[in-house]
Amino acid sequence: MQRPLCVRCGDSIHPDTANRNADLCIPCTRGNQLSIEQRNENHRKQREEERVHLESPQYKYWSSLISRVYGDQGGFGSLQHGDRLYFLLNVLTGEVHNGGFDQFFSNSSGDRYAETVAALSEVGDQATLQLLLEAKAALFAQDEVPANRVARFDLMASSSKEHPRYESAWKTLDALDKRFYASSSNVDAALDRVVKTYNLYSDA
Hints:
Structural class: mainly alpha
């Protein structure tokens, strides 16, 4: 037996449901179902946004930068100064948005903590710099941040529940992450300044 279709969204529904709800599916009776046309339009917009993003100078530049850093083209040390600034700032914001400051220090991004501090200072993003320094203090207190990932993780207050500052560190990090998300436009503005100063997208 062919199942009837919802008269609003077009999804197939059980005959009993159709009879009870004037040929509407349950989501549509609750008013929270998009029509097929609306869903198709949303998908179309998403595909178009993705296409525009993949063709943007920003995406092409970042892809090239990633290839230079992690490919066989000399690595981070071979980058020009402007490229280094952009890479450090973009990695910081990406890591924090994905998993907070804890992720920044836990991953290889933390290897370049000192360079990231210098980059934020140079581009004048004092607000984000302050958040990063507070995150460092919550995780490492007065200790230096090791450039080695394993050594760094062993020192992090967030790495073990046995650490005496474990709870306080996570509480502080949670607050810092929220402050970062609320003010992430600071880093975006700094990245824009770096792009303009060093004309980074010209060859993208």
